[in-house]
Amino acid sequence: MALCGGVGAMALPSELIVHIFSFLSDRDKLRASTVCSRWRECLFYPALWTELKLRIGGDLKGGGSSSDDTPKLEFLMRKFGSFVRELRLELAPVEGYLSPLSSDPSSSRMDLPPGPDNDPQLSERWKDAMATYLDQVLCVFTSIRNNRNLQKLSVYGDTCILQQEGLLDSSNLHQIHQGDKKINEIQQLFMEFLSNSRQLRWLSCSFMVGLVTPCSLACLSNPSAETLQHLSLLDHQLGPLISPSELDRLSKLHSLALDFSDFTSDLCGILASPHRTPLHRLSLLLNGAALEFKPLEGTATEDDWKALVRVSANLRVYIMALEVDSSELLRVLKPSLPLERLHLDSYNTLVSDATLELISQQYNKTLTHFLLLRDDPNFPDLSINRNEDPLVLLAWRCTQLAVLVIHGYTVWSHNLVAISRLRGSSLRVLTISEESIDFDPDQSVCMEGDPVHNLVKEVSLGLGRVWHPCLDSSLVLSEPTQHFQQELHTFSMGM
Predict the structure, then answer these.
(1) Which of 48, 76, 215, 232 could hold 204 in an S-S bridge, CB 3.0 to 4.6 Å?
(2) 0.90 exceeded by pTM
(3) Which neighbouring-strand residues pair with 100?
(4) What's 328-365 look like in SS3?
């Protein structure tokens, strides 16, 4: 690249080269660093790497190898770990989609048996994946443990297949070379990072095997306790990862994400204190398969929710219920809970029409997002009869509804038309899988011509835009915990 007067780009001052490179993506920066030593020197200037977002291992389509990515991770963390200000990291130790805890090996989103001891090949794969995961987490926290400038740390593990009962027991860890030692070292490094931090504003640790313990948050430094605005601690099996006394230190929290079973009456009482910054966003994950280890006893009551809403008038709640039957849902959906987003996802359990009736009545003024997904070849009908559909009633009552996603339940074509007309253009997202749609030959949409064409035309007219059913159900059935992690991030940022 030549400049005026025949002066080459290499003659530019380093500061100007750094400024030009600041417009490149992280991937392009790394590619450009291989051009020459001068560019390499400029591209590794700390000001260019204040933010680092990485996904190590399987990509969104399930490809890639986590162990192959370890050298890249080590290089990046060695270069930038000590000064990066924002680190967002996703680890996928096993290729392909991973399922949440489930005792049902036939789940279509889980191609592998549920435990490391069922099959010799799986056992070797489990050990290799766990060893790679431990090495990568060690690499990350060894690099950032003395970073006092880190303001945002978000780490997420696609590790559900690793999180089987007894995983952290020595009977499993001894199969991995120095497994117990590495787990202890990781936990110590994490606590060291928390104690050294000085201006942490965002801390998110989701499904990171062996990272967070119930004692970890006690190590958070006082300066970071005063600056922390978002906290996310999610784990399928461990007990509460935060105590009331530790939450009480975090008086500036704006958003919080926890397992539903960990959101106790005591924690709710702390958040309801008038001397705190009002809470704006609360994300809760309810995993039915984990209720055996984390029961609902002691969770926030109706009175607790009322007290919290009195202090945090703008509070909005996002709940994902994974493989939870209707009886448990009715226990947790309190009338005073300011529910904005609800995601019901399952493999085997069914959502009843009574549950949908309750949701549409209790949250008619707050509900904006509703996802109803079921990964099963059968498509049950929620209607008592085809003209009294609870989904139509939900669309009618919930006047703020903007996102509706359905797969795994029968949606009658004329009811789908009714939903589009009730909500119109205010329903920004209407995603219904083609497999879920059925046609009643007695309805007008089937009277003349192609019923699918007629349906598309009528729904498009109702919404005021072009609409089509979703032809690929895999676009709707994302891995649930990964979806929750992504959604809670955007939900919490929207405060």
Answers:
(1) 232
(2) no
(3) none
(4) HHHHHCCCCCCEEEEEEEECCCCCCHHHHHHHHHHCCC
